[in-house]
Amino acid sequence: MSRELIQHIREFTKLTDDQADFITASVSERKVLKKELLLTTGDICRVNYFVVSGCLRLFFIDEQGMERTIQFAIENWWMTDYTSKDRNVPSQYSIQAVEDSIIISLDNKTSEKLFATIPALETYFRKILQRAYSASLFRIGLLYSRSKEEMFFGF
Amino acid sequence: MSRELIQHIREFTKLTDDQADFITASVSERKVLKKELLLTTGDICRVNYFVVSGCLRLFFIDEQGMERTIQFAIENWWMTDYTSKDRNVPSQYSIQAVEDSIIISLDNKTSEKLFATIPALETYFRKILQRAYSASLFRIGLLYSRSKEEMFFGF
Fold this sequence. Notes:
2 copies of one chain form a homodimer. Chain A has helices at residues 3-12, 17-26, 82-87, 108-117, 120-145, 148-154, and strands at residues 28-32, 37-39, 47-53, 56-61, 67-73, 78-79, 94-97, 101-107. The model of chain A has no long low-confidence stretch (mean pLDDT 92). By secondary structure, chain A is α+β, with helices and mostly antiparallel strands.
């Protein structure tokens, strides 16, 4: 259980076996089915999801009623709505399983406890956020390079 | 010097006066002129810039030779190319002052030294990256909602 997460953390920072055991005991892993919603627009997001296998997507409904996916999370990526989570406000997004997936849920209370106990986790999340942030800027660049039609069918 | 940065860090995490002095002594503040380039496409990005006053932009040149701004950094925002900085590869972007600005430069070696000495900085950067990442996802959502013409003239 959670072997993939521990392995992923250790790619970015050091973790003792005791710390790894503590993390493993603090988080829960479960299977979600294709199309299952983990967050629904209007709800407050209180969980950060780590994808062990499968794929999640973050999307919103635009003014024309179209679903617009603004991010995918595949194996070893995290997905949450930080705006909703950090400010305790309703989310503008939904999170849905694109296919049957195995995910690890890290709720707010647990993450606060883990950050307070294991400073290395701050380093881990800083580094993966640098990567996620870069990826989103790259995505913005791609959107500029695509025609409206390509955007519509391509994402 | 660097008072704004220390104040900004303290909005997100605790910092002792000694730590604040150490940060202040480690970073440099300077004025940059409108249109001055801090990073040029093809160079390796080795610095993270904090905007004390003024505005920076991150842009790339598209296939039609047009400059495409994918991010602005105003007061209290950081700007860098994490992909180039973390992987030591040439940047696809340029960073330029939009107007006369006061910036604080944090180079890679200094930031490594600071992270090793002041763990609270990991928390600070994790939290500001959560915010920056959320802002870029929001931007992606906006791009979906705009026509190609609005994208062209609007950014």
